[in-house]
From TrEMBL:
This is 5-hydroxytryptamine receptor 3B. It comes from Cavia porcellus (Guinea pig). One of its GO terms (molecular function) is serotonin-gated monoatomic cation channel activity. Residues 35-240 form the Neurotransmitter-gated ion-channel ligand-binding domain. Forms homopentameric as well as heteropentameric serotonin-activated cation-selective channel complexes with HTR3A. The homomeric complex is not functional. Heteropentameric complexes display properties which resemble that of neuronal serotonin-activated channels in vivo. It is found in: Postsynaptic cell membrane. Residues 247-330 form the Neurotransmitter-gated ion-channel transmembrane domain. The chain crosses the membrane at residues 241-260, 272-289, 301-319, 421-439. Forms serotonin (5-hydroxytryptamine/5-HT3)-activated cation-selective channel complexes, which when activated cause fast, depolarizing responses in neurons.
Length: 442
């Protein structure tokens, strides 16, 4: 009877054991993935280009997305950009039938374990900086996808003539180091128009704005063979508003103040003080803004030429005013000294012991003495005095006439400087407006 009581419990035990086994199935995914990886890499040789027929080239598809312009070094002619780089190629030795491996259609493999094209950027001037992404995606058809972000420091011919309305055109050229076009050929991953107009990923909150990225395919021919190249021409332009507010407008105000000094009299000493103050202020402004204007040994910015010309005009006008004041002062002193010398000569003719300082004091004594002299001597003395007075008046007239002539000459020179100043400012304003229009229409 105890055996009969235990018999109904056996079906329950069997059902419970079956449920436990069904709740914890054996892991099938990991062994299958591991088996697929071993199947692909067990007899794989990464030193050999992955084609069955060595005559057929391996086509590498490239794509480039510009993310940001990090730095523009005009002095060293270098451009630092952040880009997203993608390359896709077909590996005939890494294809499999997904139905034999639990429908696995894509896996990741280490890049160091497979063959990869030796594609570099020809304009590299520093070591590339990118995250260490050591894996690539491989699908069942043998297509390999390698994507990574790169900080590229490349050489570029930067022109600063139109600063701050400058537009720069820099290129990134991708090509193979050793493989000719018969072995490795390059193609575009996307349509050229899509690459040119794609600016969605670009950061527009910095100083530079991306206009376009134009892709160009060409073949470089040299003594080693023909090499396929893909060149991405990046066209960027500077946002000039910050430089217009902090650089152009203050410099124009200083030049207008300097123009106002031309309305002061040419022989006025206050004009020298005013122009000296403007020159000091302009020099301080140039020193403070020296780091704002890009410097290049190959080209000079238009705004730098304008600053130099304006400072030359300012120094020339100040030097002219100083020389004029000095010359008028010398003429005035010489005009007062000449009559004294004439009086000294006349008094020496009458008596060798009388000097010009005591001649006026002895007039009273001479008049008393002359009453006892003859009439011809009195007339002779009067004639000498009249001749001295005439000489003095003629000398003063000559000094005044020379001063008037110099003033007239300096006024004409002032007018010439003023008109030249206006001409330079007008040409500079027209040039800036033209550059702004070209910048807006680009």
């Amino acid at each position: 009877r105890p055996g009969l009581r235990m018999a109904p419990l056996w079906p329950c035990v069997l059902v419970a054991a079956t449920g436990i086994l069904a709740a914890d199935p054996p892991p099938l995914g990991d062994p299958t993935l591991l088996h697929l990886t071993k199947h692909l890499l067990q007899q794989y040789h990464k030193e050999v280009r992955p084609v069955h027929n060595w005559v057929e080239p391996t086509t590498v598809y490239l794509d480039l997305i510009v993310h940001a312009v990090l730095d523009v070094d005009v002095q060293n002619q270098k451009l630092k950009t952040s880009v997203w780089y993608r390359e896709v190629w077909y590996d005939e030795f890494l294809a499999w039938n997904s139905s034999l491996f639990d429908e696995i259609r894509e896996i990741s493999l280490p890049l160091s374990a497979i063959w990869a094209p030796d594609i570099i950027i020809n304009e590299f001037v520093e070591t590339e900086r990118s995250p260490d992404l050591s894996y690539v995606y491989v699908n069942s058809s043998g297509t390999i996808k390698n994507s990574k972000p790169i900080q590229v420091v490349s050489a570029c011919s930067l022109q600063t003539y139109a600063f701050p309305f400058d537009i720069q055109n820099c290129s990134l050229t991708f090509s193979s180091i050793l493989h000719t076009v018969e072995d490795v050929d390059l193609r575009f991953l996307r349509n050229r128009e899509d690459i040119k107009r794609d600016k969605k990923a670009f950061l527009n909150d910095n100083e530079w704005e991306l206009l376009s990225v134009t892709p160009v395919y060409n073949i470089l021919q040299n003594s080693a063979g023909d090499f396929a190249q893909i060149q991405f021409n990046m066209v960027i332009r500077r946002r000039p508003l910050a430089y217009v507010v902090s650089l152009l407008i203050p410099s124009i105000f200083l030049m207008l103040i300097d123009l106002g000094s031309f309305y002061l009299p040419a022989n006025c000493r206050a004009r020298i003080v005013f122009k000296t103050s403007v020159l000091v202020g302009y020099t301080v402004f140039r020193v403070n803004m020296a780091n704002e204007v890009p410097r290049s040994t190959g080209s000079t910015s238009l705004i730098g030429v304008f600053f130099t010309v304006c400072m030359a005009f300012l120094v020339l006008s100040l030097s002219k005013s100083i020389l004029l004041i000095r010359f008028l002062h010398n003429e005035q002193c010489s005009g007062w000294e000449q009559p004294l010398l004439c009086l000294q000569k006349d008094s020496d003719a009458d008596g060798p012991g009388v000097d010009p300082g005591t001649w006026c004091a002895g007039i009273t004594e001479s008049s008393v003495y002359q009453e006892h002299q003859a009439q011809p001597e009195t007339l002779k003395e009067v004639w000498f005095q009249l001749r001295s007075i005439n000489t003095h008046l003629q000398t003063q007239d000559q000094v005044e006439q020379q001063g008037v002539q110099w003033l007239a000459l300096l006024y004409r020179f002032d007018q010439l400087l003023f008109r030249s100043y206006l001409l330079v400012l007008g040409l500079y304003a027209v040039t800036l407006c033209s550059l702004w229009v070209l910048w807006s229409g680009s």
